[in-house]
Amino acid sequence: MCVDRDGCEIEGCSSSDEVRTLSGSMSPGLKSNPDLHPCKPGHKFRAALLRCRSPAAAAGILSFGNVLNYMDRYTVAGVLQDIQRHYDVTDSGIGLLQTVFICSFMVAAPIFGYLGDRFNRKVILSCGIFFWSIVTLSSSFISKEYYWLFVLSRGLVGIGESSYSSISPTIIGDLFTNNSRTMMLSVFYLAIPLGSGLGYILGSSAKVAAGDWHWALRVSPVLGITAGTLILVFVPEPKRGSADQMGGRLKTRTSWACDMKALAKNRSYVFSSLASAAVSFATGAFGIMIPLYLARAQVVQKTAEACTKEICSSTDSIIFGAITCVTGLLGVVIGAATTRFCRQKTERADPLVCAVSMLGSAIFICLIFVVAKKSIAGAYVCIFIGETLLFLNWAITADILMFVVIPTRRATAVAFQSFTSHLLGDAGSPYLIGLISDALQESYATSALWRFLSLGYALMLCPFIIVLGGMFFLATALFFLDDREKAEKQLSQLSRPSSTVKVTDHLGAV
């Protein structure tokens, strides 16, 4: 007999003990229990809904939401030239859009992390998606006299999106274990380059199709509301730590102050966090400014005219978006495979692979500014190789953290590393690059060539920051083995029964 948890029979369900006659009646000895009642339509729908709430479906929906998160973030970049012309702002004013977004995202993330540890996570996720969707849709109706309001709207979008990035990985972590968890989290984070690239493509395509750039901001909100509804309906709220097998063995946990003190003394963690900030600096500036730079390059080459129409050319944004999708996916896959191979040669493979990829990326990114004046196709080739090498260290940096930080303080380590990478990276890089470009343009008579060169000279700061990040990874390699060994010893101590730890401490004191 099949019964749901509300105590009603489910039609069309039978066990091996149930026998039906040719006439369709059930054998007398196997009739339904009189205490049971037939399912109402609402009960049937609820039972079907519970069957759809599988961990795999939940992970898929959360990954879809992550794609939309990053798609919305970079939709603005896909129509940046139109926004600059519509609101009549300088390069620094355009860079301010991303800076305000990242600053609000960075400040709000710890707050949502705190809420996510104490309240219903999927409700917070859905509210966050509904919030940024409504704000993005509303921002498409802001008139040209109120650019400050448009900038403010990007800050509010950052708050909404921070709720998603801070909480959704913890739900996946509580639904899966071991290799399954690693695979699902990898899929979740692969949504970052995919969503970023699709943001450029969506913004540019919607603008061309509608004949108005404002429509670029009216597509992702519809998808966002759909994702928020799917999360509310199909994503379960698992018990925190339900899939964590390590938690049962760890007998001792340290305070937050002790965790922060230990992380500050962990040299591998500190240097890899600084290197991560260098990557964030470059990707933040490139994501906003490169399509604009390539559009100006074509004006210099006389293959295109400066935008004086209502709708500017979107070719560069679409191509750059497609390149970002492909290079992000390639970078993660190549990075994992390269590290796995190099670990057979040296135990310091993780930071060394990151260092080499960063230094190689700096070379090709420098070549962009050499080639762009003569060949747009050559610039795209350099962008493809440079971005692939830059994205190669995404997954590896996370592995380094897992090696050198014990499980009981990894969440704190991830949160603080994210905060640092935004604070020292993309929170200020777009605005800083814009300021440098504006200052260079004021030094000489403005012309199409000088507008192109000034932005290129400003972007040349990125390769130097990338080289600095490579040096930080080399420094990480120096201390990696020692810090990994310390983490293993601390983990073994925390895994002992409390009585054993006390005896050991007492004997050590004696």
Q: Keyphrases for this structure?
A:
510 residues; mainly alpha; two-stranded parallel ribbon; 2 strands; 74% helix; 1% strand
Verbal overview:
- This protein is mainly alpha-helical.
- Helix content is 74%, strand content 1%.
- The protein contains 19 helices and two strands.
- α11 (315-342) packs parallel to α13, α12 (349-371) runs antiparallel to α18 and α16 (429-443) crosses α17.
Q: How much strand? A: under 5%
Counted by DSSP, the helix tally is: 19
Alpha-beta content class: mainly alpha
Elements, N to C (H/E): EEHHHHHHHHHHHHHHHHHHH
Poorly predicted regions are 1-32, 244-248, 498-510
Q: What is the rounded Rg?
A: 27 Å
Could you tell me how far the N terminus lies from the C terminus, measured between alpha carbons in angstroms?
A: 66 Å
- How many DSSP E strands? 2
Main beta sheet strand tally, sense and closure: 2 strands, parallel
Helix content: over 70%
Given the C-alpha coordinates, what overall shape results? Answer: globular
Overall mean confidence score, pLDDT: 77
Read across the widest sheet, the strand sequence of neighbours is: 1-2
